Amino acid sequence: MSKGKRAVHNRGGNVKKARAREQAPAPAETAVAKPPIDERTGAAIRRARVERGLTLSDVASAASISVPMLSRFENGQSTASLVLLERICAVLGTDLPSLFSEVEQARGEAQLIKASDQMEVVRSGTKHGHTYRLLSYHKGPQKFFEPFLINMDKESESYPRFQHPGTEFIYMLSGRMEYRFGDKTFLIEPGDAFTFSGGVLHGPEKLLDDRIQFITIIIYAE
């Protein structure tokens, strides 16, 4: 084979490799950022309080501060003095160095999953003709929420009922459906937002259009 032909062949191979790289799914982009110090401190206090099974009133009373003030500290809306932080830590059975150590380790995350990389997953409604596209995922041991893009059509022979912990939110994108929640039904149309307790039996009752599409978010964290 001549040098010219080999060169053409190699260029073709490089083009194929470049195309393969372009077509390969890209990983989700994640950015890490530090929230403001007040928010990180408040979040650390709240985690410690919840882990110990204490209410806002329990901690506020023992630390000799008001419940609204403690709530503002936890939400990062006010800055607690070192004296107040020390009293709160004493109630929670920790100390300032431990609290600040946790505050410095705290991070916030942002995740971007391109449309071409969103995965279709199997859920209990899959066998009934529903398709679920997972819009975000959490790698940690505990799921705080799950957002899905759901497509349904009238070809589905039956509509399942669901029951799960947490709160569910539905935002209707296209089509109309009647949705059952316990012993009530609700008409959901494009642009409507529907929020309800996941522990009550729920699910689509009737599709009023041939195809519907909506986003649902299941929030597990309390």
UniProtKB/TrEMBL annotation:
Residue ranges of every copy of the HTH cro/C1-type domain listed in the record: 45-99
Entry-linked SUPFAM superfamilies: lambda repressor-like DNA-binding domains (SSF47413), RmlC-like cupins (SSF51182)
Biased composition (Basic residues): 1-19
InterPro entries listed in its UniProt record: Cro/C1-type_HTH, Cupin_2, Lambda_DNA-bd_dom_sf, RmlC-like_jellyroll, RmlC_Cupin_sf, TransReg_Diox_bact_type
CDD domains in UniProt: cupin_XRE_C, HTH_XRE
Keyword DNA-binding: yes
Positions of the UniProt region annotated as Disordered: 1-36
Protein keywords: DNA-binding
Short name of one Pfam family: HTH_3
PANTHER family in the cross-refs: HTH-TYPE TRANSCRIPTIONAL REGULATOR (PTHR46797), METHYLPHOSPHONATE SYNTHASE (PTHR46797:SF1)
Protein name, as recorded: XRE family transcriptional regulator
